[in-house]
Structures are given as structure tokens and as C-alpha cells.
Amino acid sequence: MKTIWKYKFDIQDDFVIEMPKNANILTVQIQHDIPCIWALVETENSIEDRHFKLFGTGHQMYYIDIKYVGTFQMRTGNLIFHLFEKL
After folding, report:
1. Which strand (E) or helix (H) includes residue 69?
2. Which domain holds residue 62?
3. What DSSP line would sit under 12-67, residue for residue?
4. In 3D, which of 75, 78, 5, 80 has the Cα closest to residue 40?
5. What is the number of structural domains in the chain?
6. Do residues 36 and 29 make contact, with C-beta atoms less than 8 angstroms apart?
7. Distance between CA atoms of 84 and 47, rounded to whole angstroms?
């Protein structure tokens, strides 16, 4: 069965989220001051680790094999983060 799941995460340079295989990330946004990823998942698929990297605006990007997920703001726009998935 396909459904949309939400994954909360902490602000860290690198983090891992367990998702069903082949989950399709739809967006990253803030909900109630907590950053979240929403993904379309096939609930019967086995679980895999997905690796993510956060960059702030102006920070050096030293990874090559990454895919852009989205940008979100915190603290009324004073902090801007750009989320990438490591490939």
C-alpha cells in the first residue's frame, strides 16, 4: 500500500533516516518549529537507511554525490538550511 509518511529530524550536519526502500521524498518543511521530511512510501517494502546532509547558506559544500531535496527556514527566517541526500 502506498501512503505518505512524515519523518522528523534534528538540525545536524549529517543524519540518517530509516525509510521503506524506494521512498520518494516529496518535500522538506517546518511543522511546529520542527524540520520534517514527507515521503511517498510503499509500506510493504523493506527498510533502508537514507543519508542526508544539511548546509547553511554560505557554507562550503564539499560533497559531490548529493541530490538536492529542499530548502527550509527557521527562527522567522534567520536560519536557512538546504537539505541534500547523499547518493
Report:
1. strand 66-74
2. 2-86
3. -SEEEEEEETT-EEEEEEEETTEEEEEEEEETTSPEEEEEEEEEETT-----SSEE
4. 5
5. 1
6. yes
7. 20
The one-letter code for the residue type at 9 is F
Residue type present at position 61: M
Query: Taking the model in full, what pTM does it have?
Result: 0.93
User: Tell me: the pLDDT tens digits for 25-68?
Assistant: 999 999 999 999 999 999 999 999 999 999 999 999 887 899 99
What whole-number distance in Å separates Cα of residue 29 and Cα of residue 20? 20
pLDDT digits (tens, 9 = 90+) for 22-31: 999 999 999 9
Residues 6 or more apart from 28 whose CB is under 8 A from it? 35, 36, 37, 38, 69, 70, 71, 72, 83
Asked if residue 63 lies in contact with residue 53, where contact means CB atoms within 8 angstroms, the answer is: yes
The position carrying cell 517546518 is 30
